[in-house]
């Protein structure tokens, strides 16, 4: 009887993390038809892009409308562009009940038999007879990802959230796009019930989660679930382990660890700026850390440290960690325009790795040599990169002057 042996050198172990999917929490918003845009804002009006969304071609507009039901009003509700064939209002169940609209759960675009509302814009009201839905949880998935998972458009999968609470969604519709990021969309009610937020991770459960080697043999491998923990106090387990990573794995000096502890103990010392420490955990093991700031005067984030332990690299965890960092900054500081990313030139080869990593995320290098040296000087030589979070974000001399003034206050 033939017996096939698994050759560990021919196994693609990286595939075990292909089942992880970031969560995107969707707040109430409105999609407008071209006709309704003109009724609300004036003839020939074009929506203004405030921020590009993960689903390419879609954007959050600067314009907002009021959504009026029989019992109340939701003010300044964001419009998501571009224009659609039909106007659609997406609310959570809590939002719908609050303004007196019967909550109806539907997939996007399935509007027959749904209730209507009144929309109020600068040029007056628009009455829509149908189009208000509580959107069913769904996944937007890039085609390249879907091909890896062998998932077809409009196929249904199960999604498991293993955070503070364990929640499983069944019959989750997958909508495949040629471009854009893969993201599991739930509304604010669902996020609150599951104790999760944008940037947290869930697991897609589809058919059988199996991995085969190059000979066709099934390899038994567990699927990791990554949790992100905000550091609040230095004695928290995740914070202590994160500091240990900085010391033992990334070889950061003790002085930096001491400064981190001081900032956690005395956050008011750098006010109005904010300091954050975030760790990534696989089960109970801390496998990554990020330390970052919000610079209040410059309206920018500053990522000082971000790293994944060597054995957990090349699995996409670094990208997940970065996106969780930006989701925290955007949620807590709505006026943020972009993020400065620090790459230390003293780190040798690792500097090049981090530079490529940030470039792949859409960041661009900042040529600080262009600016007066007496205003822009670090204690050690670093490369700065910039990732805009808003479409009209600009990094000019004035903004950098504010950023470096803020950094002098927070870095000490």
Helical content, roughly? 10-25%
**CATH first level of the largest domain: which class?**
Mainly Beta
The helix count comes to 9
Q: Specify the biggest β-sheet.
A: 9 strands, mixed
Distance between the termini: 70 Å
- Structural class comes to alpha+beta
Write down the overall geometry. Answer: globular
What can you tell me about this protein's structure?
This protein is α+β, with helices and mostly antiparallel strands and 412 residues long. The protein folds into 2 domains: 7-207, Barwin-like endoglucanases; 218-411, Gcn5-related N-acetyltransferase (GNAT) (Aminopeptidase, 3-Layer(aba) Sandwich). Helix content is 24%, strand content 34%. The protein has 9 helices and 24 strands. The chain has helices at residues 34-41, 93-99, 143-149, 188-194, 237-249, 254-265, 317-332, 349-360, 397-411; strands at residues 20-26, 29-31, 49-52, 59-68, 73-81, 88-90, 105-106, 117-121, 124-128, 132-135, 138-142, 156-162, 166-177, 183-187, 201-205, 211-212, 218-219, 226-230, 274-282, 285-295, 300-308, 338-344, 364-366, 382-388. Strands 2, 3, 4, 5, 6, 7, 8, 9 and 10 form a 9-stranded mixed beta sheet that branches. Strands 18-19-20-21-22-24-23 form a 7-stranded mixed beta sheet, with helices on both faces. Strand 12 and strand 13 form a beta hairpin. The longest helix has 16 residues, at 317-332. The protein is globular, with a radius of gyration of 23 Å. The termini are far apart. The model is unreliable at 1-17 and 219-223 (pLDDT under 50). Keywords: Acyltransferase, Metal-binding, Transferase, Zinc. It holds the Pfam family PTAC. It catalyses: propanoyl-CoA + phosphate = propanoyl phosphate + CoA.
